[in-house]
Write a structure and sequence with these properties.
Radius of gyration: 24 Å
Largest sheet: 9 strands, mixed
Mean pLDDT: 83
Structural class: alpha/beta
Strand content: 15-25%
Shape: globular
Length: 341
């Protein structure tokens, strides 16, 4: 299966990386002079440097559709300087994904490919594409919309660690940007990260210069729950072991540990049950399984503890996912209720 992605910025590169690892042929297009912010994790850098590697996957600049075919044959991702996506006629993709994140449709049509997907606001599923993927932070992030549009752009950066607009550096004037610091550099309030037309761009808060925020975002999102859960479990285990060691009843120690785990389970169960009821139209399965998922949701959430710990200290390895079920097979077997469309 061949997927053509419009845009090669950070989000588009994440999409390309995942699809490439799933065994799909991926081709990307972008501006001749890319404007990506997180350059170190963007395949658009291939148009600047000739090649760019993100997490051991390499993308190379292609001058034509024919050269893109050669790069695909070598197991890499071709990137073309083709903002109008004219290469589509020659490449004939099975799916077209607009991940430019322009907050508006720059010319994509629902008939451009068998499957057309818009990422973020500016698209309407059923009109100019078959599906839209939500990009707004919150509980709907990543949701696939088959009728309607994503949440409109607010022009307000997401709130992380109590900061929103302060996280973004804005140009003080029109002109050419000249960087003073490397992406990933630590900064303090008042530090000059770059200049435009001789005017400084000063940091409003301390932290890490944007481009290396993935770990920070992850920490701010899951670290509080991870730390509290780990400390709670470790404390109860330690008290249970201490009680047994000092001659206390092992049943009391186990009861204390069990009550803690039950309390966590019930809390997550309530959250899962509420989500199942409110989002039932977006859970494409039978009623019995929806009920079952409410009970298994807490178990799924418990897996975040070892996963979070492993993510902080180890380097994960990606493996291609073999897809054995197709939409046609589900329809022929009478299981079309599992399909979202």
């Amino acid at each position: 299966m061949r997927v053509l992605i419009r845009g090669a910025g950070d989000l588009a590169s994440g999409i390309a990386l995942r699809l490439h690892r799933a065994g799909l042929d991926v081709v990307m297009t972008d501006l001749e002079k890319p404007t990506a912010i997180r350059r170190t994790v963007c395949f658009s850098q291939a148009l600047v440097l000739g090649a760019a590697t993100v997490e051991d996957v390499t993308a190379r600049a292609a001058a034509s559709a024919a050269q893109a075919e050669e790069i695909l044959a070598a197991g890499e991702i071709p990137v073309l300087a083709d903002p109008a996506c004219t290469c589509r006629e020659a490449l004939r993709p099975d799916a077209l994904v607009d991940a430019i994140l322009a907050k508006r449709n720059l010319g994509m049509r629902i008939g451009d490919a068998p499957v057309v997907i818009g990422v973020g606001p500016g698209f309407t599923a059923g009109e100019d594409c078959h599906a839209v993927v939500e990009t707004m932070r919150g509980h709907t992030l990543g949701r696939v919309i088959y009728r309607g549009s994503a949440i409109p752009n607010t022009n307000i950066p997401g709130l992380i660690g109590g900061f929103a607009g302060e996280r973004v550096l804005r140009a003080p004037a029109d002109g050419v940007f000249h960087r003073k610091l490397e992406i990933g550099a630590r900064v303090e309030p008042g530090d000059v990260a770059g200049e435009v037309a001789g005017l400084p761009m000063r940091c409003m808060i301390g932290g890490v210069l944007r481009g290396n925020f993935s770990c920070f975002d992850m920490s701010m999102a899951i670290m509080p729950a991870f730390v509290l859960s780990t400390v709670s479990i470790a404390s109860n285990l330690a008290l249970a072991i201490w009680g047994v060691w000092t001659g206390g009843s092992i049943l009391i120690a186990l009861q204390s540990l069990g009550q803690m785990l039950l309390s966590m389970y019930l809390t997550l169960f309530v959250i899962g049950a509420i989500t199942t009821v409110t989002e039932r139209r977006h859970i494409h399965t039978g009623r019995a399984r929806r009920v079952l998922y409410a009970f298994t949701f807490p178990l799924f959430m418990f897996t975040y503890l070892p996963i979070s710990l492993a993510a902080l200290f180890s380097k994960g390895e990606w493996k291609p996912i073999e897809h054995r079920v197709s939409a046609a097979s589900l329809r022929s077997s009478g299981r079309s209720e599992l399909l979202p469309f």
